[in-house]
Amino acid sequence: MTASQSFDITIIGERINPGFKSTKALFDNSDLPGVQALAVKQAEAGASYLNVNIGARALTDPVFLAEAIQAIQAVVTLPLSFDVPSVQTHELCLQTYDPARAGGALPIVNSITEHRWGAMSLYRERPFKVIVMASERVEDGVAKNNKSATEIAGTARRAALRLQRDHGMALDDIIIDLSVSAIIADTEGLNRATLEAVKLIGSDPQLKGLHMMGGLSNIGQQLPPKAADGSDLKHDLENAFLTLAVPYGFDTVLGTPWRGYAPLAQDNYVLKAYQNFLEQTGSNALRAVRKLYKA
């Protein structure tokens, strides 16, 4: 790939989420036409799926959740991804979702973990694709955060093979979510572990056909808008991560479709500074972060 090309990736549109102030205002006002306009904008910008997350209201107002799904499907033909807080709300989403409005495409249940596997009880009645969070594992019955590449890749492998074995799921219907941490306080090499896990998962012959994804918006959290060379720091950081991850099978992004994602040239300032950051830990990592935006 050259810097003039775009990545060959699947984009799950992230904007129907109260984490965005403008979207929260839509939910606070029960503005379904506004939600529809946001769905259309993401579809027209190239999203392949739309993630639907109405926050805590999913638990307190199931009627609004169903109305939101129906309103979105009334104006776009993309399949939906449901990011809701309980098995019961996932069940409502799957009951409400109309596959015919999406050309027969399966929806996505976002997300399960080894510790929160309950939504898989719904699979036999209404099949779906699934996003598995590889950021935590179960050890001796206790959920623990994964911090190393081997822990992340091991969790991904166990979950994928379990879904195959117990539910007959095709690997093409399984998406592993590899958390992309904010670099501002990453003194433990979490970004490095994620990228190393991408390589481990991508090279595992038993996982051929599996999809890997992540939400990129966290990576530049709390950083200034401009890099030391004047470029868009946060956007270039997202593309720097993808430049390193996509060649090893990372093929899906939970992101904003109209931002555009493209590989960076090897001499790109942010890419080189990010690669330097990946080699550091502790206080050296913090100093490496500052080099991104301080000449």
Class from secondary-structure proportions: alpha/beta
Task: Provide the CATH superfamily.
Answer: Dihydropteroate synthase-like
Radius of gyration: 19 Å
- Indicate the CATH architecture: Alpha-Beta Barrel
By CATH reckoning, the class would read Alpha Beta
Q: Can you tell me the overall shape?
A: globular
Overall pLDDT level? 96
Secondary structure elements and pairings:
Blueprint: E1 10-13, H1 21-28, H2 32-44, E2 49-52, H3 57-60, H4 62-75, E3 80-82, H5 87-96, E4 108-112, E5 129-133, E6 136-139, E7 142-145, H6 149-167, E8 174-177, H7 190-202, E9 211-215, H8 233-245, E10 250-255, H9 269-278, H10 282-293
Parallel strand pairs: 1-2, 1-10, 2-3, 3-4, 4-5, 5-8, 8-9, 9-10
Antiparallel strand pairs: 6-7
Helix pairs in contact: 2-4, 4-5, 6-7, 9-10
